[in-house]
């Protein structure tokens, strides 16, 4: 992602293009291809010499969408953990777990099973 003077120069050179095209050309795209408009706009404002509230450290206040550690039981009875949590734990597709329910605390534990494919 371009910042500072390099960002301003690239944005100026593409000023006849749409904002989305400029943001992509400056590298403001997430690994999954989503355009990071808020980060792009914040970087532009900072490159122009303005500091927004909470940006005194030089970085944006927000890190995008954050997991809020809440879920609910779906109508079909499933309880979804979500990929924000599995990524944070470094879990891989196909990994298997034993589920233990601790009635005294109400906690649910996921215990990794040994890899039986080797």
How is this structure best described in words?
- By secondary structure, this protein is α+β, with helices and mostly antiparallel strands.
- It has a domain at 1-66.
- Helices cover 29% and strands 10% of the residues.
- It contains 4 helices and 2 strands.
- It has helices at residues 4-13, 19-25, 37-47, 83-88, and strands at residues 97-102, 107-112.
- A two-stranded antiparallel ribbon has the order 1-2.
- A hairpin with a 4-residue loop joins strand 1 (97-102) and strand 2 (107-112).
- The chain is elongated and about 60 Å long.
- The model is unreliable at 55-60 (pLDDT under 50).
Tell me which oligomeric state these chains represent: single chain
Helix and strand run: HHHHEE
Overall form: elongated
Discrete helix count:
4
Instruction: Give the percentage of residues in beta strands.
Output: 5-15%
The radius of gyration over CA amounts to 21 Å
Helix percentage: 25-40%
Distance between the termini: 41 Å
| SS elements, strand count | 2
Output mean pLDDT.
82
- Largest sheet at a glance? 2 strands, antiparallel
From the helix content, strand content and strand pairing, which structural class follows?
alpha+beta
Spatial ordering of strands, largest sheet: 1-2
Q: What are the low-pLDDT stretches, counting only 5+ consecutive residues below 50?
A: 55-60
